[in-house]
Amino acid sequence: MSLLDDFxxxxxPNICAACGNSLFKHEEVLCNFCEFHLPxxxxxxxxxxxxxxxxxxxxxxxxxxxxxxxxxGSKVQxxxxxxxxxxxxxxxxxLGRQYGAFLKNSPFFSTVxxxxxxxxxxxxLRKRGYNQSEQFAVGLSISMKIPVNTLTLYRKRxxxxxxKKSRFKRxxxxxxxxxxxxxxxxxxxxxxxxxxxxxxxxxLEACILALxxxxxxxxxxxxxxxxxx
Length: 229
Description:
This protein has two domains: 1-37, no CATH class; 39-226, Rossmann fold. The protein is built from nine helices and six strands. The chain has helices spanning 3-11, 32-37, 50-54, 75-85, 89-103, 122-128, 132-144, 167-174, 202-211, and strands at residues 64-69, 114-117, 153-155, 178-180, 190-198, 218-226. The strands form two sheets. Strands 1-6-5-2 form a four-stranded parallel β-sheet, with helices on both faces. The longest helix has 15 residues, at 89-103. The protein is globular. The two termini are 22 Å apart. 40% of the residues are buried.
């Protein structure tokens, strides 16, 4: 992605965030062509799918899915980049609304009661200004008509970026960094834990291990995209 693309996307939000073409009046964030051709996974309709298998033998999840396949240099990567680093919160909310419409009709996600984004450390949140996963959660909440909880799960300390780390190093980087406040609010609830991109699943696994301290909790996972070989 060029600096010009970044600049244009910020100044002219009436262009498609994926391809840069002008949007028609009825289009929002994405043009119809990109909306149709972005690589959706349909994992939300498969109990046994590549995202759910990431957690096999590691931790217990009810269901797991991602909206899109993630590949380097792709339009999906562009969307994630704009959402995460260029202030385009609307991308997260829009994709959440779109994916929420699918999830609420999935037999595996229809009983979800609470949506919970993977938290950022307060220092990173202050620097970035928002949590990109929370924007996705807000969009999901709008479509699924389920509340978002951003207070119970929190990150105890800041960590290094996970980019370019091995699977073991990713896990080592996030092990035991999440904790809970007032966990009784989640007793017996079905929680949907959401993130922007799933690669090794290390961060989500660390969150899930912390959440499993809650009696009777059930945890499902969803993300905007999944990057898997």
